Fold this protein.
Amino acid sequence: VGQADAIELPRFAGLRTFARLPRLEDVGEAAVAVLGAPFDSATTFRPGARFGPAGIREASLLLRSYNEPLATAPFASIQVADAGDAPASPLDVAAAHQRIYDEASKLTRKGTRVLGLGGDHSVSLPLMRATAEAHGQLSVLHFDSHMDTWESHFHSRYTHGTVFRRALEEGAIDPASSIQVGLRGSLYDAEDLPNNAALGFHTVLAREFDVLGVAAVFRRIEEVLRPPIYVSVDIDVLDPAFAPGTGTPESGGLSSRELLTLLRSLGDASLPPVGADVVEVAPPYDHASVTAIAASNAAFELVSLLVMGCLTSADADS
Ligand code: MN
Ligand code: MN
């Protein structure tokens, strides 16, 4: 079952699912599912990402069926569905993460590959836990202006700025085969970047794009990643010109074209992820849906890549 027919039902009509795909409960099971994680109570500055999944779904109405650069029709090849939102309490970080994990692992245990829609970046922790349990320790491609490897904020260890340190402590991810792309902005201390490097993460700073260019940046990414790959897109990796609707914006970021090119390069390099997320879209600060459109387009590339990965592994199995 594919998208609602745009010839019969106008794109702006009908209930909102991601890309006008069927709901998971309508098709029973799916190879790839989109799962909302509308939670932002682990945010340290501007809240609002709890409205991210709804904003991305609204902006995704315009997604058509064919991915031309990747030469794939992701919704025609295999069942893709919208699994709705995890019922995450806004009042309890641990309980919310548990509910997100429960919903994600219900899917990953059946072999479904999940694209999570945040929510603040803390939701990546339960999503990566579920994905690592199904596929093994993850190699992470992390797009962000921030490292998100701090020890704590306000004496709390589970925040949107500590998610990758917690994930590596738990063994869900392998920093030596993970790379953070787009880092920039003011830091707390001169030791922040060295401390991050000491954890083992590879990095490409935003300002390195000027020297390297996108193709050379991807070559660095390609050198680091190995299966199973997880892609986490914090939308604040984009310059605020391309993504104003986010909680912790930093100037000097990537363009949406650079991000989309890097994502598609994973397909060209036969490095499809087994799980992914798009987080930190905060519609209350968005203008003209600029951020939600960028996020929905990134999500389309990620769904396409997840589908490509399913088809490749089905080939390998047969
Ligand atoms: Mn982040
Ligand atoms: Mn960030």
User: Anything to note?
Assistant: The first strand starts at residue 32 and ends at 37.
